[in-house]
Give the backbone structure.
Amino acid sequence: MERVRIENQKKDEAPADTLDLLWGAKAISDFIGLPRHRTHYLIYSGKLPVKRIGKQILASKSAMRAYFKELEG
């Protein structure tokens, strides 16, 4: 298996093989177009479909799209 070096990669960026995932609140807020403080509120109040791996927050782009599409009704 080939090793991929991600040393210079920013914390909020995902490796190329996880393109559907958003890593970190900044990436999530950029994707949904809300300020980071509002995104943090939605995450910690349990309103956004996110998962945690340790302290890291991640979300699926497709799950976010489905969530907001459902809100539109």
Q: What stands out?
A: The two ends are 45 Å apart (CA to CA).
